[in-house]
Write a structure and sequence with these properties.
This protein has about 120 residues and is an alpha+beta fold. Helix content is about 35%, strand content about 20%. The chain contains four helices and six strands; from the N terminus they run βαββααβββα. The strands form three sheets. It has a two-stranded parallel ribbon.
C-alpha cells in the first residue's frame, strides 16, 4: 500500500531531516517514509479484513483491495431517489502541518481587543 503524503511531506528530498521533539531525535525523510510505508502494509490490511468479518461484513478476494483498488458498492441515501454506484476505498494519509508564525501585529491586536472590551 502506498501512503498519501500531503504536499509538504511529499516535497521532501530523501536526505532532508526531521527532528522528533519527544527525544530530540534526527531522522532522514527517506527513513521515516520507509518506516511508515512498512507499518501500513500487510498487517493493517489483514486487521481491517478481520475487523470487517468480525462485524459480519463479508470480504472476498485479496485483503489489499480495500486499500488499493477499492470495493465496488452502491449507496442509498435518505431523501435521494435511486442508488449511487461507486467505490469504497480506505485511504491513509500522513500530514505535516507547519506552525503559523506569530505576526508582530498579534500583540497590537490583543492589546486593542483588551482596550475595546
Amino acid at each position: 500500500m502506498e501512503l498519501n503524503y500531503n504536499s509538504y511531506l511529499s516535497s521532501l528530498e530523501p536526505d532532508d531531516v526531521l527532528e522528533l521533539f519527544e527525544d530530540h531525535q534526527l531522522v532522514k525523510a527517506k527513513d521515516m517514509k520507509h518506516a511508515l510505508n512498512d507499518s501500513f502494509g500487510e498487517p493493517i490490511q489483514k486487521r481491517l479484513v478481520e475487523h470487517l468479518n468480525y462485524r459480519g461484513i463479508k470480504t472476498k478476494g485479496k485483503q489489499s483491495v480495500w486499500l488499493q483498488e477499492g470495493v465496488d458498492c452502491r449507496i442509498l441515501r435518505a431523501g435521494v431517489i435511486g442508488w449511487q454506484k461507486g467505490c469504497l476505498k480506505v485511504k491513509v494519509s500522513v500530514e505535516f502541518i507547519p506552525d503559523e508564525p506569530e505576526s508582530p501585529l498579534d500583540d497590537i491586536r490583543r492589546d486593542m481587543e483588551k482596550y475595546n472590551s
